[in-house]
Design a protein that fits this description.
Layout: E1 8-13, H1 22-35, E2 39-44, H2 67-75, E3 81-84, H3 85-90, E4 103-105, H4 107-115, E5 119-122
Parallel strand pairs: 1-2, 1-5, 2-3, 3-4
Helix pairs in contact: 1-2
């Protein structure tokens, strides 16, 4: 665990991008956390990897696309972004085609990141 005044946080994004507000709220929390310069790692796993699919069209379901939130990660210096390789493989998603750069990790590495965190948020 971290002994400085800044807390180490891990944000798990496990929900698909549409159908409920959890995925969007997770991205908004990530941006808000970055504003306060907190130590944050973001892990996309399970159905959360669908959030990283490029060229999402949410107009037909009358909700805002999350792509603008994801694109803002770079402006907010959110660089510690991970995606679970097993989740991509199960969904036949190519890592090279994701909408933002994310480091491939396995479940063991995800567990290690969680063990190093002071705060874990699941969405």
């Amino acid at each position: 665990m971290n002994t400085s005044s800044t807390k180490r946080m891990v944000l798990f994004c496990r929900k698909s991008p549409y159908g409920n507000a959890l995925a969007r709220e997770a991205l908004e929390i990530a941006l808000a956390t970055a504003v306060f310069e907190q130590d944050l790692a973001i892990i996309f796993s399970g159905d959360g990897v669908w959030q990283l699919q490029p060229q999402q069209n949410s107009a037909e379901i009358h909700v805002k696309s999350q792509q603008k939130l994801l694109a803002a990660f770079a402006m907010y210096d959110l660089n510690e972004i991970y995606v679970e390789q097993e989740a991509l493989e199960l969904r036949n998603i190519n890592h090279q085609e994701l909408s933002i750069a994310a480091t491939l990790i396995d479940r063991q590495k995800a567990a290690e990141l969680c063990n190093s965190a002071d705060i874990i948020l699941n969405f």
